[in-house]
Design brief:
Organism: Candidatus Gemmiger avistercoris
InterPro entries: MetI-like, MetI-like_sf
Low-confidence stretches: none
Family: Belongs to the binding-protein-dependent transport system permease family.
Number of helices: 14
Largest sheet: none
Protein name: Carbohydrate ABC transporter permease
Number of domains: 2
Structural class: mainly alpha
Order of helices and strands: HHHHHHHHHHHHHH
CATH superfamily of the largest domain: MetI-like
Main location: membrane
Helix content: over 70%
CATH topology of the largest domain: MetI-like fold
């Protein structure tokens, strides 16, 4: 009896924590399925868009797909911003793979003078918030004539210090005796990286790409700083530029914007776990 009571209390506590996490998703899902007039009458007063007392219903009285259909069929601005996000995010991931993976392999497996100092510099750059690096990035991009273009977001994302750090932790789990055996067989550094480093460091690489996608997809400050033309804005700025009076459309847009991030995270969750486990291994 004494053992069952703490277990029940722990289960109730974890269930409450899970409910707290799932509540915003439930809020978005059923908000996107609620008619606009009902949504304005229930939560509109909380947003200053109606009279009366705000309240939230667990389920809509009359579920409808009208907000989703209106957003998908009658809102070309939403699709334009969706493709802007794709144009800006996926090249960042390709750049992190092409430039970040070799840099991470060099920091993890090559021994050269200044390696520890260089790794410390990467960690320092990773810890700096965007507000600190905003002015130098702005000056560099303006000097290169890349302001108000997609490259203003792509290039800084390609050379992300965080991606290099995560990939390096994944490469640390590659056994050194295996690398020594490859060197004895005549494999050079490039071949060793291609044949051994990439396959065995895949969990760390995929973890970095998943986290990079989530960061790029949800970026708000960078587009607002470097992009002045609304035609190039990503999906993260859709709600800021849309008509805030249509709460149902705002709920539907938030739900659809969340969907790719949830799918990518669901796909990459096993690799994230493997990457975390690999970063804790010691030779």
């Amino acid at each position: 009896m004494r053992r069952g009571l703490p277990r029940a209390a722990l289960t109730a506590l974890l269930g409450l924590a899970a409910l707290t996490v799932w509540w915003p998703l439930w809020f978005l899902l059923f908000g996107a399925l609620t008619p606009a007039d009902e949504l304005a009458a229930t939560i509109g007063p909380a947003l200053g868009q109606g009279a009366g007392q705000a309240r939230w219903q667990l389920l809509p009285s009359w579920p409808t797909l009208q907000p989703l259909a209106g957003l998908l069929l009658d809102t070309p601005q939403f699709f334009a911003m969706f493709w802007n996000s794709c144009i800006q995010v996926f090249p960042q991931l390709a750049g992190q793979l092409c430039f970040g993976a070799p840099a991470a392999w060099a920091l993890s497996r090559l021994r050269f003078r200044g390696r520890r100092g260089l790794m410390g510099l990467y960690i320092l750059l990773m810890l700096l918030p965007f507000q600190v690096t905003m002015v130098p990035n702005y000056l560099v991009l303006d000097g290169l004539g890349l302001m108000d273009t997609h490259w203003a977001l792509i290039l800084p994302g390609c050379f992300s210090a965080f991606a290099v750090f995560v990939m390096a932790r994944g490469f640390d789990a590659v056994p050194r005796p295996l690398l020594e055996a490859a060197a004895i067989d005549g494999a050079g550094p490039v071949r060793t990286f291609w044949r051994i480093g990439l396959p065995l460091g895949a969990p760390g690489i995929l973890s970095a790409l998943v986290l990079g996608f989530l960061e790029g997809w949800n970026a708000i400050e960078q587009p607002m700083t470097f992009l002045k033309d609304p035609a190039r804005w990503p999906l993260a700025l859709y709600l800021a530029s849309a008509d805030g009076a249509d709460l149902a459309a705002a709920m539907a847009a938030s739900l659809l914007m969340l969907a790719p991030a949830v799918l990518i995270f669901r796909f990459g969750q096993p690799y994230l776990e493997l990457g975390i486990q690999a970063s804790g291994l010691k030779e």
